[in-house]
Amino acid sequence: MVFRAEGNIVWCNKLAQHLLGFHWPEDSGQPISNLIRTPDFIKYLNKKDFSEPLEMRSPLNVERMLELRIVPYTEGEHLMVVRDVTRLKQLEQMRKDFVANVSHELRTPLTVVTGYLEMLDSDSLPPPAMWQKAQTTMLEQCKRMDSLVNQLLSLSRIEGARRQDNDKPVNVPQLLTYIQTEAQSLNQDKGHELIFNVDASLDIKGAEDELRSAFSNLVFNAIHYTKPGGKIVVDWQLKNNQAAFSVTDNGDGIAAEHINRLTERFYRVDKARSRTTGGSGLGLAITKHVLTRHDSRLDISSKLGQGSTFAFAFGSDKVVRIANKTEKTEKTAKS
Known about the structure:
The chain is 41% helix and 24% strand. The protein has ten helices and 14 strands. The N and C termini lie far apart (68 Å).
């Protein structure tokens, strides 16, 4: 938008109207301070030092951040350029949160290992019972750090660009068979009823190692976070010409305010409980990026006290039907 030195508006485009709530041509000649009454903007305007841009909340939506730059235009006039920087600010905050969170996640196991190592002395080793406990704890914490670093590297790799023309058919039923075997092993202490409904003729095109992460993260999460003796149903079916995958549990459910943030790195609904179960807070972030790279997205539905469903689907362009396979198999595992 353009305004005169005394502040009267000369011209503005449609985007300025959208971001600032101006009405054109009704606001022609109006003092700009009458239309943008934010105290920070009034102070910025009166100071008349426009060497640095001003960041302020949108007068129309406090959730939106705007960057204003004012530069000389023609004689006696100024040009003000307004840019929506909301997304940039969100990304910057996410970066800060990520650094803070990963530092915190690594600090705890490092503190444990360092503490035990400081106790060791070649001349006076601790008693065998104490040493056995210390060794076990240090190994557990080292494995936790190793797992965390591997997941961070995996996430970093997945976030990079991927050429979909290199995609190959993936035998998803076989992949789910492997995951089911691992799930049964994890489920020994939990005693859940595990049900796998798998269409044995349904394959898709994609990157197998990435897809395995997406499938297994959802299945293993259901086992970890559902109370013992629960029921978990895994579905892999063709629906509306799409290959649809879902994991449904009858656990505690997730409050609505948490659902949109579940795929953020290190975000946990219950931090203490997640650390007890060995969660890193990266599994759903990895799943989200894998699905994005395969033109899909994660849908989460949940009701407190009733359970949750995590689901995604792949478009018909990725579906591969194998006619000579058994049309459908249902596998039920109870333990």
